[in-house]
Amino acid sequence: MKRTTKPAVLAAALTLIYSGIGISIPSFWVDEAATISAVDRSFADMMRMTQSIDAVHAFYYVLINAWTAVFGLSETALRFPSLLAVSAAAGLLVAIGRRLAGTTYGLVAALLFVVLPRTQYVATDARSYALALLFAVLATYFLVRIREHPSGRLWAGYAAAAMVATLLSLYAGLVFVAHVLTVLLDPVLRRRWKAVLALSPAWLIPTTTLAIIGASQQFQISWIRPIDGSVFFEVAFFQFFTDAYMLLDGKPVPEHTPFESVSMYGLAAVMWTLAAAGAVRSRRHFLVKLALPLLVLPLIAVIGGSLVFGSPYYLPRYLSFLLPTLPLLAAALVPRPAEGRGPGTTSRQRAVVLLAVVVLALPSYVGQRTEFGRSPLDDFRFVAQTLGDGARPGDAVALLGDADLAQSAYPDSFAGLVDTTVGISAADWGRIYNQRFGLEASEDRILQHDTVWLVHPAEDDADEEILVSFGYEAEARFEGTGSAVVKFVRNG
Fold first, then answer.
1. What is the pLDDT of residue 342?
2. Which domains does the chain possess?
């Protein structure tokens, strides 16, 4: 097979353009604000923070701390590493596909991968999921190369990719479990099982270390809904075909628009059908032995582990490294695999199928590139702009709920305002959030100001009554999608 990097580079470049459009449009949301809060402090303070919270993200924070020192904390700057990671993963997917079944197969798999709503989610999110995905794909690429021509350089690359992937996500250690099954199923790789076993510490040591540390910080995931029958819906639809992160009371969080819901169901029907048919058609091909374990085993391990240990460990975004698996199986219907049998699909049939997938993915693509495309409840930019436009230096601000992270995400809009509810700063406290007090506990500080800007969750206006009892009246009210910003002035 002729070796060339042009298709892979082309796929990466087109992914960079496609995924990069509108990357700065969505407001920062809670998780991204948490990234900013973590990295926008001294290195020593950041490392001290991870001793009490977010230890599993420590390596990502180290990388982004260095990145933002150079490129700043804008939406584009924070999200660009994820965009680069997904673009590089698309290129690697072409390279993997070319070795498995030809360049056409690789290009189709990469296209299906890129347009998935979950892929677009991780590509434009300032969290570690895209980088963990990249290094999981890189490790898989090295495994494919090792199957062809093992060498010390390839084994070293495999071990390095494994270590970085697991440092970015302890869940990525499950890639190794899938790779072990692939090695056992494939006669060629089975001859090299001792070498694979010898490199297991590259996967297991970081994973075990993070798991032990993370066990002491399990309060971070206590909000996740316990595993129940809804998990099948989440796997079938949320894992690949939406940016929602869980099903709560029968509704996706965040909620989809009607067009997004229709496209999610349509896209899931097409892709799962293609993947099932591709797996059956190429069942004797190495690509199925590679992709199917990587799709199934991590899901079984995480969901099964949640049931066994009684703790919820499954969220679709935690397993974002699974994203290439479904496209690899679905694309098996497109060309004729080098080791398979039977005619491949025609160019016209491929075009129709791919066009259908792209069209079905568009509502989510567009929806993610709106101001509230991350989470309507986290309207941090709205809060910041409202205060930036209306508040004056010396005015007081009282932040309640997640509004604390709005300040972390857009600090310039809060400059010159007197924060009346803050206690110990996040950096001094070693936390993501600043310490916050309620309005009644902050009364003495609030009463020192004639103008107070109250920011609170929109669905709860009880705190407005507290300010009224302090002798203030509401002069102006601004409603966002998740927050209310109310200007209060002292009576008389």
1. 42
2. 6-367 (no CATH), 380-490 (3.40.50.150)
Q: Tell me, what's the pLDDT at 4?
A: 59
Q: Find the DSSP H helices in 236-394.
A: 239-241, 258-281, 286-309, 325-330, 347-367, 380-390
- What is the C-alpha to C-alpha distance for residues 319 and 322, in angstroms, rounded to an integer? 6
Whole-angstrom CA distances from 160 to 139, 156, 163, 170 are 8, 6, 5, 15
The secondary structure of 322-343 as a DSSP string is GTTHHHHHHGGGSS--TT--SP
Of 322, 290, 53, 286, the residue nearest 174 (C-alpha): 322
Residue 240: other Cβ atoms inside 10 A: 27
Looking at residue 176, its amino acid is F
- Provide the pLDDT for residue 134: 98
pLDDT, position 3: 58
The CB-side HSE value for 362 (13 A sphere, CA atoms) comes to 6
Give residue 341's pLDDT: 44
- Two structure tokens written together for 258: 């009607």
> What is the per-residue pLDDT for 460?
84
pTM above threshold 0.90: yes
Residues of the chain with pLDDT under 70: 1-4, 334-346, 492
Quick: pLDDT tens for 415-437.
999 999 999 999 999 999 999 99
The answer to whether 129 touches 61, Cβ cutoff 8 Å, is no
Q: Classify residue 160 as exposed, middle or buried by CB count within 10 Å of its CB (0-12, 13-18, 19+).
A: middle
**What residues does 139 pair with on adjacent strands?**
none
- Give the CA distances from residue 433 to residues 190, 341, 408, 428, 439, in Å, rounded to whole numbers and listed in that order: 49, 58, 9, 11, 17
- Count Cα neighbours of 17 within 13 Å in the Cβ-side half-sphere: 5
Identify the CA nearest to 184 among candidates 280, 99, 297, 323.
297
Burial of 270-307, coded b for 16+ CB within 10 Å and e otherwise, reads: bbbebbeebbebbeebbbbbbbbbbbebbbebbbeebe
